[in-house]
Design brief:
With 153 residues, this protein is mainly alpha-helical. It has a domain of 101 residues: Endonuclease III, domain 1. The protein contains nine helices and no strands. The longest helix is centred in the middle third of the chain and has 19 residues. It is elongated.
Amino acid sequence: MLTRAQLNEVSETMRRMFPDAHCELTHRNPFELVVAVALSAQATDALVNRVTPGLFEAFPTVEAMAAADVSEIESLIKRIGLYRNKAKNVKALSMQIVEQHGGIVPDDRASLEALPGVGRKTANVVLSVAFHEPAFAVDTHVERVSKRLGICR
C-alpha cells in the first residue's frame, strides 16, 4: 500500500503526464453530464455522444426529462445497450433531482449515489468533471491496475 506522500506523487505525475485530460462525454451542464455518464455504462462514449444531442434537444431541462414518458426516452436512446432500464433510470433520476434537489444536480457523493442508475463511478465522474472535486472514476480496469501497482488494496 502506498503512503499518502507516494499517492500525492502519483497524482502529481499523472497531472504532468496528462495535462489536457478531459471528459470525452459531450455535455453543457451537470445534468447533461450525469445523464450521459449513466448512459455510458456498457456503451462507448462515442455512441453516447451520438445519442445525447437528440435526447437533450427533446428534453433540454431536468424538468422536461422528469416529465417525459419513458417510451419517449427509450426511442431516443435505443441504440445504446440496456436502453429500457437506462431510460427508466434517466426519468427517475430526473424526477428525484427535481423533487429532492430543486432541479439542481447535487454536488455531494451520497446524494449523487442515491440517484437511480448512479453508482460510485458515475458519482465520481460528476464530482470531478462538473464540480472540480478530487475524485477518481474507477472501473474494473482501473481497479485491477491500481491494486497491482499497490495504490489500493
